[in-house]
Amino acid sequence: MSDGLLGRTVICVEAKADEPFGEYAFAIHDAAVKKIKQRIPTNALNRLLHLEENLLPETGLGLPGLAEIRYQLLTGTAAAIALAKMKQAPIAVFVVTQVGHRGRNEALAWKE
Fold first, then answer.
1. Does one domain contain both 17 and 27?
2. b/e burial code for range 32-62 (CB count within 10 A of at least 16 → b)
3. pLDDT (tens digit per residue) in 21-47
4. What per-residue confidence (pLDDT) applies to 111?
5. Pairing mode of beta strands 2-4, 7-17
6. Domain range enclosing 16
7. Residue 65: predicted pLDDT
8. Overall domain count for the chain
9. Looking at the structure, do residues 60 and 75 belong to the same domain, yes or no?
10. Mean pLDDT of 10-15
11. Which end of the chain has a smaller Cβ tally under 10 Å, C or N?
12. What gap in Å lies between CA 69 and CA 25, rounded to an integer?
């Protein structure tokens, strides 16, 4: 957190170390629907729909949707915004950094 000329700013950092970003949000949606059909308790669908309602733009604007966004990045963005609200910060920043490539090709690392 930092206080500056434009007010308070919160910064949340996701550090990746030779690991993938996890599943796409739509895969989480599908898995939750399957659990619900099997009568297995889950709140995953409610959480995902809440994130979608509050963070994603309207469909049809040419912007990524659930099928193109990693769930981990969606929840990281939500965390940055929630922290900004809690700290009364008008600016929230979510940063993703990759460390420790261990000889991997950078272009391949970012494709994951």
1. no
2. beeeeeeeeeeeebebbeebeeeebeeeeee
3. 889 998 999 999 999 999 999 999 999
4. 47
5. antiparallel
6. 1-21+70-112
7. 76
8. 2
9. no
10. 91
11. N
12. 6
